[in-house]
Amino acid sequence: MPEGHSVHRIARQFARSFVGPPVQVSSPQGRFAQGAARLDGHAIVESRAVGKQMFLEFDHHLWLRVHLGMYGAWDFAGDIVVDALSPAERGGRVTGDRVVGANEDSPWSIGAPRRTRLRMAESEKLQPELQEWPPAPVGAVRVRLLTPVAVADLRGPTACEVQTAEEVDATIAKLGPDPLVDGPAGEDVFVENVRKRNVAIGQLLMDQEVVAGIGNVYRAELLFRARLDPYRPGKDVPVELLRELWRDWSYLLGVGVETGQMLTMDGLTGEDLDRAKASRDDRHWVYHRTGEPCRVCGTPIAMAEMAGRNLYWCPKDQT
DNA sequence: CATCGATGTTGAG
DNA sequence: TCAACCTCGATGG
């Protein structure tokens, strides 16, 4: 799944393109038909992301809560604004933060939505232009949000439900701090959440009640950047190291939200940066690099299962 | 074209 | 602790 950065980007996409006009809400697949009926025709007034969860508030004080889980994705189409993508993903069509040229040969009438299509999941990419408006749903679309100029299709989510404001509050209350929600104040909460647990720090970083938004990639990379042994119990990690971990997570999350990619290796410039953006395998210190030489000391990167997820680390540098 | 694995969570046992 | 959820890119034939 998308880790925290992509969910914040998706929330931003909704804020830009869906807040305002009344929204037709439907469930082409049928599994969300009842929920869709409760939202249909209302306007979206706010879009929020907390950790890996996204919340859309409608004008009658009901919310749509979405968690993408492992395979969930949003497909946006129509007159939407697209953030800068990497060279591999942009296909030469993005200038600044607008897609240009998409309608230059368009037979569409003036005022029709642009035909841009953008898929937002764990990665983002522009897709072939639309041929019709509104586009026919493809596959199992759990929920479709349609305005006069933009459409968003959700497929494969772990969670998709209507919540009251109280239920939204309760959901968020169970989550640990998110740097983009709680700001620097989240640091003390994070430190306390970790220090009171006799559980491996590698496991605590993945626990959404301890800190929200970190997934398997950021977990491995944060631990390497801190040169921290994933198996050290939370209560034994020095407070100052935990503060550095929180600040590094805040930093990496910001980079992820701005670039749309999990760029966890600092100091890359020029061709090295382009290579990291183009290839997932050249992008990380330890994630998915089992047996490869550590980029710092050359020791083969280790991999083991921790609480059902693959953990990657350098057994020499991380102590 | 078939198979595998994945950036995640939930609920059953 | 494990299967289920349900999608798709990567990989191998």
Task: Write a structural description.
This protein has 319 residues and is α+β, with helices and mostly antiparallel strands. It folds into 2 domains: 4-171, N-terminal domain of MutM-like DNA repair proteins; 176-313, Helicase, Ruva Protein, domain 3 (Orthogonal Bundle). It is built from 10 helices and 14 strands. The strands form 4 sheets. It has a 6-stranded antiparallel β-sheet. Strands 2-3-4-12 form a 4-stranded antiparallel β-sheet, with helices on both faces. Strands 6-7 form a two-stranded antiparallel sheet. The longest helix has 21 residues, at 239-259. The structure holds a DNA duplex (13 and 13 nucleotides).
Task: Please tally the β strands and state the result.
Answer: 14
Straight-line N-to-C gap:
29 Å
Instruction: Tell the overall outline.
Output: globular
Radius of gyration based on Cα positions: 21 Å
Structural class of the secondary elements? alpha+beta
Lateral strand order in the biggest sheet = 1-10-11-5-8-9
Q: How many DSSP H or I helices?
A: 10
CATH superfamily of the largest domain: MutM-like, N-terminal
The CATH topology name of the largest domain reads N-terminal domain of MutM-like DNA repair proteins
CATH class of the largest domain: Alpha Beta
Mean pLDDT: 87
In the residues, how many domains can be counted?
A: 2
Helix-strand sequence:
HEHEEEEHEEEEEEEHHHHHHHEE
| CATH-defined architecture of the largest domain | Alpha-Beta Barrel
Strand content: 15-25%
Helix share bin: 25-40%
Please give the largest β-sheet. Answer: 6 strands, antiparallel
